[in-house]
Amino acid sequence: MSFASRLLPARNRAPDLTPMHGAILSAMPVPVVLLDADNRFKYVNHAAEQFLGASAASLSQVRLTDLVPSDNPLFLLIDQVRRTEATISDHDLTLESARLHKTGITVQGSPVPEDPNTVLLVMQDASAARALDRHLAFRGAARSVTGMAAILAHEVKNPLSGIRGAAQLLESSVAPEDRELAELIRDEADRIRALVDRMEAFGEKPIVRAPVNIHRVLEHVRKLAQTGFAEHVRFQENYDPSLPPVWGNRDQLVQVILNLVKNGVEAATQGSDRRPEITLTTGFQHGMRLSVPGTKQRLDLPLFVSVRDNGAGIPDDIRPHLFEPFVTSKSAGSGLGLALVAKIVGDHGGLIEVESRPGRTDFRLHLPVVTEKDADQ
To answer: In terms of Cα–Cα distance, which of 67, 72, 73 is closest to 51?
Structure first.
């Protein structure tokens, strides 16, 4: 029995697919789909099952229009492949319906000469590559803030201390009607110093790493939030208890998660009648690797942590620049919180990405786990 015969019923069997061909297609890490003249699924490999969120047996009973609206540009590509009998590619497609939500998809369609009107689709999710490009840009932006922080610490803090001290002396010697101005100078000096202190967090300091139980970090952050700024927010936790420890710095990871939760709470509690909700999720995902800054080492990033809120979503004009310094949609925000999050995650050799639409914003961290080499240190 051929591989295709095991995947789909005989009436939907792919043409002339030998066991070797089937094994090769099945092993491919990108989704591969064969559609007949009615856009029914004749063949799907394992990656396509995961991509479409359905088994081969269930897909054999439906058409592509059952998963994607018929006005989607994907169908124009399929029709053009059949009409021209040529290979055609399209990029940055969105495949969205009640059963599917995929953005930034590249699709290549090809005819199958041995079976007229059959179309082979190869789909690639380019979102991970774009997330990596953005991540590298965030690293560069964080380095610029690092240099700025060093200048500010050296050139601003000393005169700032003098200004504050002078304001304190004035408070005790000026007339009562002028004391308010002296207090204003002191308060503004404190505010500027606090901003400089926050920017100093971008400094290039080595990370002290150890095995960290990420679920204890999440539980600690949840308790902090619920006893403070998230008292009336509902938390949901979807944890994979089998995850190994993260190789990182516990305090810095607490800072990252706390910042993301705080942003999520603020988004979920603004301008909505629904009850604000934060969902914390952990899981294992193979296939993500990244280099460690300043070294030739490459880390596997199989562990992910997701912080999701049910707020209004991130404005389209801000989303591409979300992790850049001084970018914020808050009227009183400094725009340094998420930039610092991106820097800490990058220093760990990890990756952060975000997906957002109205009613759902999901920040996902990909983090390294403890290896045998790490355990021996």
So the answer is: 67
What tokens appear for 216 in the block? Answer: 């204890």
What does the alpha-carbon distance between residue 192 and residue 165 come to, in Å, rounded to a whole number?
Answer: 14
Q: How many angstroms from the chain centroid is the CA of residue 355? A: 6
Write down how long the chain is. Answer: 377
The whole-angstrom separation of Cα 284 and Cα 300 is: 11
Distance CA 101, CA 166 (A): 59
Q: How many structural domains is the chain composed of?
A: 3
Q: What is the pTM of this model?
A: 0.59
Query: Do 77 and 138 have their domain in common?
Result: no
Give residues with Cβ within 8 angstroms of 222, minimum separation 6. 235, 237, 261, 280
Say which CATH number the domain at 323 has. 3.30.565.10
pLDDT tens by residue, 29-85: 889 999 999 999 988 998 889 888 888 888 988 899 999 998 999 999 999 999 999
Euclidean distance between CA atoms 354 and 346, whole angstroms: 15
The residue whose two tokens read 């990252």 is: 256
Burial category of 33 from C-beta neighbours within 10 Å (exposed 0-12, middle 13-18, buried 19 and up): buried
In a domain, 205, yes or no: no
CA separation for the pair 371, 244 (Å, rounded): 9
CA atoms of 95 and 100, how far apart (whole Å)? 7
Tell me the helices (H) and strands (E) count for the chain, helix number first: 12, 14
**CA angle in degrees (0–180, nearest 5) for 136-137-140:** 90
Angle in degrees, 0-180, between the axes of helices 214-226 and 250-268, rounded to the nearest 10:
40
Contacts 24+ apart (CB under 8 A), 194-201: 195/334, 196/149, 196/152, 196/153, 196/156, 196/157, 196/160, 198/334, 198/336, 198/340, 199/145, 199/148, 199/149, 199/152, 199/336, 200/149, 200/152, 200/153, 201/149, 201/340
